[in-house]
């Protein structure tokens, strides 16, 4: 858990289909040292390079952290955000794609190309020790409406996740924490009928993190992205982190979605002495065990 942090990220997905989609994110968080509160700001932009879709969303975060026991902590968070969607007639749907990823026919989807704005609310909690965590989150809890149609809403997105950090070795060098560890993680995501399961295994030898993951859509064997494999590599140094991940579909579908590339850069201020060495009232928080890039 950091005292403050700033993170920027870029993602290019479905790069084999009409130039795919890109996402840019920027966030900052600050934890008040004298109490259990934290605040943050987020900004995200989604767009298709071909000009068929643009989405902007900005939000404010509030989190509350408390110790339930000496080695058990709870964090609860809320987010309020405002966003806008700008689709156009160049927006591409799956039924328009030929086997090679090119666009061949009009879509049968019902769509409206009017710009729409919305307000959205999210919430979540995380229960964690130094090695274990479990949590849930929900986005679009208010099912925000897009336009005047009552049936045109963004359905809630629910997620549950857990993992465990196995330490092989941990030590300090000049007050910098070093470790050798392995971390299996699992998560489940659902939005209406859409379901996704993710499993990732991380290995950390400070300052390097390597991850290998597998994702699947239960019951959706014929979709192009029904299953994917991913890899992550990251390096951290004195609070700075840079990470790169690669995801590729494994489905036998002939539609060429192409891979997904993601890169992230962050800086966080963490007092590892408070987390690992000190005790009593001076040890006011534990480290969240899940890896972050």
Automatic annotation (TrEMBL):
Family annotation (NCBIfam families): T9SS_PorP_fam (TIGR03519)
Q: Give the domain of life.
A: Bacteria
Concerning InterPro entries, the annotation shows:
PorP/SprF_Bacteroidetes (IPR019861)
Q: Give one Pfam family, short name only.
A: PorP_SprF
Q: What is this protein called?
A: Type IX secretion system PorP/SprF family membrane protein
């Amino acid at each position: 858990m950091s005292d403050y942090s700033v993170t920027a990220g870029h993602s290019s997905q479905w790069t084999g289909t009409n130039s795919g989609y890109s996402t840019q994110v920027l966030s900052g968080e600050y934890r008040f040292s004298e109490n259990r509160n934290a605040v943050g700001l987020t900004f995200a932009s989604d767009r298709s390079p071909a000009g068929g879709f643009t989405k902007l969303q900005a939000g404010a975060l509030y989190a509350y952290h408390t110790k339930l026991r000496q080695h058990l902590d709870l964090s609860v968070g809320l987010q309020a955000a405002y966003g806008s969607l700008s689709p156009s007639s160049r927006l591409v749907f799956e039924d328009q794609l030929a086997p090679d990823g090119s666009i061949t026919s009009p879509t049968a989807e019902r769509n409206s190309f009017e710009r729409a704005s919305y307000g959205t609310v999210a919430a979540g909690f995380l229960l964690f020790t130094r090695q274990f965590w479990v949590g849930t989150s929900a986005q679009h809890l208010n099912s925000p409406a897009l336009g005047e149609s009552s049936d045109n809403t963004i359905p809630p997105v629910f997620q549950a996740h857990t993992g465990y950090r196995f330490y092989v070795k941990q030590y300090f060098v000049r007050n910098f924490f070093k470790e050798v560890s392995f971390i299996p993680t699992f998560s489940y995501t659902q939005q209406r009928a859409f379901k996704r399961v993710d499993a990732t295994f991380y290995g950390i030898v400070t300052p390097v993190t390597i991850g290998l993951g597998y994702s699947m859509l239960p019951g959706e064997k014929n979709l192009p992205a029904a299953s994917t494999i991913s890899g992550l590599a990251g390096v951290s140094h004195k609070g700075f982190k840079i990470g790169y991940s690669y995801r590729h579909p494994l489905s036998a579908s002939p539609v060429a979605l192409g891979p997904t590339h993601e890169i992230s850069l962050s800086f966080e201020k963490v007092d590892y002495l408070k987390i690992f060495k000190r005790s009593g009232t001076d040890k006011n928080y534990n480290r969240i065990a899940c890896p972050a890039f």
